[in-house]
Model the fold of this input.
Amino acid sequence: MSGRADQLDVDVEHGGGPPTPALYLPDAFRGLALARLRRSPPAGDLDVDLPPNVGDHDLNAGQPRDVFYKGPPRRAAVLVPVVAREEGATVILTRRTDHLAAHAGQIAFPGGKIEGTDSTPLAAALRETEEEIGVRPERIDPLGYLDLYETGTGFRIVPVVGVVDPDFELSIDENEVAAVFEVPLAFLMTPSNHQRQSRIFRGQKRRFYAMPYEENYIWGATAGIVRNLYNRVYR
Done:
C-alpha cells in the first residue's frame, strides 16, 4: 500500500513478555523453522482460484481483497534472509529507492516477480536476492516456506525462509535498493513490537501491521510476512 496518508491510528499489541535470547540463536531458529515451516510452496501460488493463506485482507474484514487492483493476481517471491550471527540471529531488510514506480522508499525483503525463466518460487527468490543485494545462493540455506501472502495491490507472494552465512558480501543494485540493514530476530519475533496501525487510503480505512525499528518504518506486506513468520515459528 502506498500513497499519501490522510490519517494514522496506532494500536500496540501487548503480551509476549521479554524475549528469551536462546530462542533466537541460529541453531534454535533453524530447528524450529525446519519443524514448523511448509516444506513446499503453497498451492495457491499456481492456482489463483484457491484463496490465499494470509494477506493484507486479514486486518480488513469486509473489504474486497482486490479493492486496489484489477485483473488476476501477480506471482512474486521474496527471501526472508535470517543471518546466523552467533550473538543472535538477524533479518536482512532493504529500503527501496524513491524513484521506483511501485512501493518507492518502503522497507522490503529482497524479491520480486516470478519470471517465466524461474523454475520455482525458491529460484525466483534466490535470483532476486543476488540481483538486488549481491548475496549469492551458495551463502543461503533454504529452510522452507511461509504461507502465501496476498497484498492489496494484487501480488501473491511466496516467502522463502533461508539462513544466511554471516560472511556474506553485499553488492547493491543502486537502481532498486537505497539501503540494506539488519534487524534482530528477537525484536521482530516479540509480539509487543507488532503494532496495528491504520490509514485512510483512497477513501477507505486500511489496517496493517507495523514494526518501527530505529529510523526504519517496517509496515504493510513486509510486516505482515514478519507476523506470519512469528505465527509459524514462535507462537
